């Protein structure tokens, strides 16, 4: 049986969204898992495209009914995120290859329960990443930037080794990175 769920994770700004977009553009069977969140919708985002936006009450009720398979609460954002079973089931049933962007706990869950291959996208170096993040988010305060860098350094040091593969996405090398990820997925038994 071919595999259907793949985790593509990495720190904010690592290029994971661009990689997923590129692969989805080339392979129509590939789709993104839409997770649930209690955060407010941002301008330009769409319900059921970026996230399923739930109130805390709705999130709790979906959890109680078994529709949130795995979740986490991010205290400094006062936000819940979770894997939304109806979306996952629908895409599995349709025979799609599903890219999940989840944290290490979600990655473990999908690996154990859905035989997902887990791939962590890494910057070439922390210095390079620092520059990329600063350029991408000029509106961040010094404090927010430092907090994000701390999270990134921890993800790379502590969590990256738990993933099946670590792929470096250096500046300007997106096509090579995409090819490497496709190669991994093919080797792992995904029928793109």
Tell me the helix content. Answer: 40-55%
The gyration radius over C-alpha positions equals: 17 Å
Bulk shape: globular
Span of the ends, CA to CA: 13 Å
What fraction strand?
15-25%
User: Can you count the helices?
Assistant: 7
Largest sheet: 5 strands, parallel
**Strand order in the sheet with the most strands:** 2-7-1-8-9
Uncertain parts:
none
Round the mean pLDDT to the nearest integer and report it: 93
Count of β-strands: 9
Coarse structural class: alpha/beta
Helix-strand string? EHEEEHEEHEHEHHEH
Topology readout:
Blueprint: E1 5-9, H1 16-26, E2 30-32, E3 36-37, E4 52-53, H2 56-64, E5 68-74, E6 79-84, H3 85-93, E7 97-100, H4 104-114, E8 117-122, H5 126-136, H6 142-159, E9 165-168, H7 174-187
Parallel strand pairs: 1-7, 1-8, 2-7, 3-4, 8-9
Antiparallel strand pairs: 3-6, 5-6
Helix pairs in contact: 1-7
Any overview of this molecule?
With 192 residues, the chain is an alpha/beta fold. It has seven helices and nine strands, in the order βαβββαββαβαβααβα. The strands form two sheets. It has a five-stranded parallel sheet, sandwiched between helices. Strands 4-3-6-5 form a four-stranded mixed sheet, sandwiched between helices. Helix 1 crosses helix 7. The relative contact order is 0.22. The model has no long low-confidence stretch (mean pLDDT 93).
Task: Give a quick precis of the structure.
Helices cover 43% and strands 20% of the residues.
Features:
192 residues; alpha/beta; 5-stranded parallel sheet
